[in-house]
Amino acid sequence: MCGINGILHLQSQKKVDERILTKMRDLLEHRGPDDKGLFIENNIGFGHRRLSILDVSSAGHQPFLSDDGRYVLVYNGEIYNYKEFYPELKSNGFDIRTTSDTEVLMKLFQLHGLKMLNRLNGMFAFAIWDKMEKKLIVVRDRMGVKPLYYSFYNETFYFASEQKALFTAGVPLKMAQDGLEEYIFNRFVAGENTLYQNVKKILPGHIMTIHEDGKTTTEKWWNLKKEIQNQPKIQNPVEWFRETFDDSIKLRMVSDVPVGVLLSGGLDSSSILASLHHQNYKDIQTFNIGFKEKEHNEAHLAKMMAEKFDYGFHTMQLEDTNLYDKLISSTYFQDEPIMHLSEPHLLAVSQMAKPSVKVVLSGEGADELMGGYVRYKALQYPSLLNSIATIGNLDVFTKKPRYEKLTRYAQIIKKSDLVIYNGSNIYPNDIAETFGINTPPKNEYRKQIYKEAKSLYPNNLRRQALYFDQHTYLCSLLDRNDRCTMGASIECREPFLDPRLIVGLGSLEDKWLFTGKKWKFILKKAMQERLPDEILKFRKVGLSAPWGDYITKSPAFKEELESFSKSDLFQIPYFEHINIEKLVQNLQKGDSRMTSYIMPLFMMHIWMKTYATKF
Question: Which PROSITE patterns does this entry report, sorted A to Z (predicted)?
């Protein structure tokens, strides 16, 4: 697990400036405090920061050169099944000199080129420089678990694990209008674009090749729609799921350092713990974030599960000044305004885990694969939404937050928009009424993914929403996980995102997902012998926090809220019609509906004040 960065001057033999490359590399020290390396040869340069997980000796040092000297590799991630390839590599004449997956990745590339990618079970972002053909190849894993950003600027190609490294190299930090619009309407920027002008992401499951003369090609190496269509029928889904899930966890326990579990007390992380116990893993440490507010707290369930399996349990709460400080830190690590609102908590729990473990397992991905969000239920009967839209002013709908949100969602007419805005907290009509912003974003990437989802699951809005979220919302969650855990110099692994599970679940009939009161039917069925009823039947809380109360009642936020009401943010033409003082007053009077409107703006204010001024 690491931070990677690089510079390629195009159409020029201008030598890479070692000081700039070093500065980029060392800004990512939190991603890899154990080792560092540089490679510079004329117009190409790589930087690497290492968090040692597999082969913690100096043999795993990067940048990594091939034995014949032709290729140079910088790599961030883990190939969980790397040992499977030893016999094949040895029979083809390769010596294996380390116990690191980096060496296996390089030698597989030498043997098979990029055709090897489909055989890798792991999370990765890497770059390979081919000295002979003078081309740079950058690759990202199937689901985008590991980040990779790039910019073409001043006839130079820059890339890095985090945007901040690009800004420190001289790429200007400028907000993109399209990005700003997506942030307000959709909570985050999807696809290859980012909040910034001239900064893009390599898309998950994609390869980009940059030739020294500036010619660039992009190709998709993993296509989830095609994989689902080609999946053979699963004969016994519950047995298949349980066996594959256990194997996924076994693979993700491959490590030369201690591995722990982020344990919320919910179904997903408890299933991971139950699988570890079933496979006789001992001395596992678990880490939990608790809340003093009962409706947000699952700590008692997490503690019960850890004690049941005789595993270590560590919990903490985050309040007042500590919460404010972690908000500032997580904004820095995130590089963008935070949007899930759980980033400070995840950073804090990762920092708590760091002295005990170097790797944590997380339950991320289960909801998007198996229908775990309540918001998907609104798509079950689209015609009912029309009825709710017409009776939406009844007290029963406006006084309960969940129903109040449903009445706002029901105003959306187009089926495509019901999917595209399903993960939003405020919808186009709300934004028009409250912010005076009437034009939704172009959302070209989201529309493209929706089209794919519709062709794969025609007339099935729920399945369309799952497929859509797997390419959009889940990517933002994985980015959050990566930034918060790596901010604490710790690696996060997601067992639910094994490619066999992603594809297999996508091929199953609806009944395996949407049966029962709370859905995720196949997971509950597979785990019913391993988990107590308290877990199987508990109301889903998720990592949610009462931010409306935090910013209005916590002393640490009082001053910030005053500063927010006068923020430079509201000088931006896009926000000129927002009466922020009125929104804040309504929140202070106890109108909890205002939280959904205020928090994206508040987090952007924090980002402008503490992050955007650094570069």
Answer: GATASE_TYPE_2
